[in-house]
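Inverse folding, one chain.
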């Protein structure tokens, strides 16, 4: 295990009915709020009306930025920054999934910055301060509700980039699993795949002596596997929705499950290049790419893949070589994604080989990616080719 420091400042308020606390929680941090939300789900469910009235009852002035896109766009973030400056907004409340929360973080970092907020995504500038943000999460997936990361797409240039900062952790996040009852089937699936993928990025590591972290990872994977089909069969399955939501938050909250371990993140890097051009849902892209990444890299550390196969999927190792066991675990992953309804090929999104070269090039723009196996451009391209 490597040396580490760990801080996570986000106040989590979990449980049915907790959205009722949004007024008091927000009023602790700000008086003039930008309410950021997506394309309509919060209006349909009544969460929008309820939130606005709770904020007003708490004496908070509300301005709004609706229509955050899934895969949120830089142009929309810039609109939010302009509103905050014009209206002297002092707090941002994101009500939605990862896209809404990520947009809120980018706005929060952009408001006090003199330059272009995109600088934070290209590494040209480092965030030194940000407006405080809070969230009401409506979709179990990204972990953005308890981490400092934001992922935004510069659509004009087909670039999707991330930043991570200690200044953009939400002050609070309200996690009411009943708010996810209305998440449609495809986004429930995409969310589950994203949660599992966050765990994979941390679990498949070359760092030695991390048994506790590995078991944290395995327990999240097993919890998602046990609960997602229950939520798909019955979208109002309270326990399943609660377990998925907490799994999502724990899977990517500043690295708690993998402290002291080298992380990989190559598959995320590759998926972001696909989304940047084709605007596909993040989890759907990961369902295609991750099993192919696994096939491509598993020989780097076969014992971790054997452990994964046996502990997570219950593969019986008797009479099999390590290679056979590892491949059985990878196939079980693919089969599971397919069984819950995730796509398995880029062709399912009508993506062909035309832009593989550009995607591979962009993925390694700052050098080789990944730590489990360092991937150069030709490796990324090979994984994309396996994914066609
Ligand atoms: O826009 P609305 O109408 O709200 O609809 C959304 C959207 O269409 C819908 N939805 C959300 N909650 C709902 C609901 N529909 C009905 N009932 C509800 N309760 O779901 C759709 C997808 O939402 P989105 O926020 O895009 O999904 P997700 O949470 O998966 O976020 C994806 C974005 O997060 C980034 C991804 O790259 C992508 O841009 N990521 C952010 C990370 C982070 N900040 O740490 C890490 C991730 O790896 C990821 O890269
Ligand atoms: Zn992800």
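Residues assigned per position:
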């Amino acid at each position: 295990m490597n040396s580490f420091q760990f801080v996570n400042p986000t106040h989590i308020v979990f449980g049915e009915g907790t959205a009722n606390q949004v007024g008091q929680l927000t009023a602790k941090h700000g008086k003039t709020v930008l309410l950021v939300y997506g394309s309509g789900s919060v209006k349909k469910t009544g969460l929008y009306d309820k939130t606005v009235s709770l904020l007003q009852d708490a004496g908070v002035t509300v301005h709004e930025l609706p229509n955050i896109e899934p895969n949120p766009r830089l142009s929309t973030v810039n609109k939010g920054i302009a509103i905050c400056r014009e209206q002297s907004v002092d707090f941002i409340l994101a009500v939605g999934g990862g896209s809404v929360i990520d947009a809120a973080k980018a706005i929060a970092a952009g408001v006090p910055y003199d330059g272009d907020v995109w600088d934070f995504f290209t590494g040209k500038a480092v965030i030194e301060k940000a407006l405080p943000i809070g969230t009401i999460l409506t979709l179990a997936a990204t972990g953005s509700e308890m981490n400092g990361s934001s992922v935004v797409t510069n659509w004009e240039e087909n670039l999707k980039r991330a930043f991570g900062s200690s200044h953009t952790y939400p002050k609070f996040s309200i996690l009411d699993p009943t708010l996810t009852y209305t998440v449609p089937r495809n986004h429930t699936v995409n969310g589950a795949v994203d949660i599992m993928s966050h765990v994979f990025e941390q679990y498949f590591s070359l760092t030695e002596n991390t048994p506790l972290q590995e078991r944290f990872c395995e327990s999240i994977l097993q919890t998602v596997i046990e609960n997602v089909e229950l939520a798909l069969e019955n979208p109002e399955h309270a326990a399943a929705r609660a377990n998925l939501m907490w799994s999502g938050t724990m899977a990517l909250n500043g690295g708690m499950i993998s402290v002291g371990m080298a992380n990989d993140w190559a598959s995320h890097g590759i998926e972001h290049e696909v989304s940047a051009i084709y605007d596909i849902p993040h989890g759907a892209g990961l369902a295609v790419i991750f099993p192919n990444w696994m096939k491509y890299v598993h020989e780097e550390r076969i014992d971790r893949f054997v452990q994964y196969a046996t502990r997570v999927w219950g593969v019986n190792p008797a009479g099999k070589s390590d290679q056979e066991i590892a491949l059985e675990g990878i196939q079980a992953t693919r089969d599971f994604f397919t069984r819950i309804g995730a796509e398995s090929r880029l062709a399912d999104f009508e993506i062909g080989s035309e832009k593989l070269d550009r995607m591979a090039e962009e993925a390694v723009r700052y050098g080789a990616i990944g730590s489990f196996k360092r991937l150069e451009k030709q490796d990324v391209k090979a994984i994309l080719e396996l994914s066609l």
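The chain has a mean pLDDT of 98. Strands lie at 11-14, 32-37, 61-65, 91-96, 133-137, 149-154, 159-164, 172-175.
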